[in-house]
Amino acid sequence: MVVAPGRPMQLVVIVQLLMSNGQDAAAKRRCCVVRPPPRCPRRLEMEQGSSSRWAFRVRATIKPFASHATETIGSVAFDSSNELMATGGIARKIRVYDISAILDSEEKQQQDQAADEDDEDGLEDEDEEGRFVSSRRRARNTFDTDRSSLSVICAPSRLSSLQWRPGKTGTITCGDYDGVVTEWSVERQIPLVERDEHGGRHVWSVDYATGMSDVCVSASDDGTARVWQGGMERSALTIRAPDSKPFCCAEFDPLSSTLLALACADGKVYVHDLRRPECPVWTLAHHRRAASYARFLDRERLVTASVDSTICVWDLAAPPAPRVVESFSQHQNVRNFVGLSVWRKGEMVACGSETNQAYVYQVGSGGGGGGGGDQSFVLRHQFSSSSWSSSTDSSSARRNSSLASAVCWMEDCSCTLAAANSEGVLQILSGEFGGV
Q1: Within 13 Å of residue 182, how many CA atoms lie on the same side as its CB?
Q2: pTM for the full model?
Q3: What are phi and psi of 148, to 5 degrees?
Q4: What CA–CA distance (Å, rounded) separates 109 from 406?
Q5: Is 105 in contact with 61 (CB distance < 8 Å)?
Q6: Which domains does the chain have, with CATH numbers?
Q7: Binning pLDDT at 50, 70 and 90, where does residue 60 land?
Q8: Which candidate, 429, 405, 434, places its Cα nearest to that of 343?
Q9: Contact at 8 Å (CB) between 88 and 159?
Q10: Can the peptide bond before residue 8 be classed as cis, meaning omega within 30 degrees of 0?
């Protein structure tokens, strides 16, 4: 592992700021109590785990009016206020949604749900192009991608990842397939800073340090992870992977911001302390194939995912070295990025699957060592068709090739998950503890 500092004084400033802000951020996160959302018995193409006490429902579906192959969503992120949500992907567009308004609309629609179901059958319309649309079904809980977007930013390249800048709702940083890390102004829809040090290779992941609005990291196919500060176009720190293997994911520890986890294509996850970045603090070796994601669950636990179809929970404090204490393997992931997200307050892990399903696992549910049986997952959610039409406008081969491509938990006291797939369908799910 080779570390190449770009600007020594700049790196010292970054480390000092990270250390001073990490404790404040951790204190804020500890003062929250989980309060489940109101219960609704309606379910949509879901399978609950046999031993789970959580019940989920779809609160909103956002999808393109016409299905396009280029609508694959590769990344989903909520801003720090949990009022806005952004998506990015193959369509070269950053779409921003007012998620609070969408969910408020869903709650109002629930009041008329029972009456609508009584006379929904037979109410059919055709749009201008002859596509069948059920007028009530289209109106309830389902939104058109273009019409429901608060803002749409057209990017020059396909987007692989994006993240909101902390404490600054109007700025989004994204990584693209051309190796560029760009900060965008949502209001003005223009790039603020463009950073091009990855040699034209895909940037697979971007992340911000908790409590720090000007320190971010990017992980790339060129085998480097680069730490950036403020509006600088040159990186302050470069970490190189062994044998120049691609870095697939980078994430700061949200509770301290001095630890940085890097998932590598060599199947290992390297955890660095930015106060001493020369060598990794831990090298986590367990996955049989490329490690695709790494997410901190808390100070002592890290969740990693791989294209060997496994998710591992690591105990970083285990003596004499970190070890896997739990693993999940109900989902299928052997080729693509399918997303990984953790809900720290509820200790849940969400991921996508190449079966066009989103999975939710409960940490501590007994998935130790090998994924167990059905009791290991809390939820298995099947995506519905991307078409507004009730008739099938796509072949079964296409449906079978679809995959759940991105997931993201809302980091607040509710159990709210955004899940997206390769057909451009985005669904907001809510969970309730104690449901049946």
Answers
A1: 24
A2: 0.84
A3: -90, -5
A4: 27
A5: no
A6: 59-105+141-365+376-383+402-433 (2.130.10.10)
A7: very high
A8: 429
A9: yes
A10: no
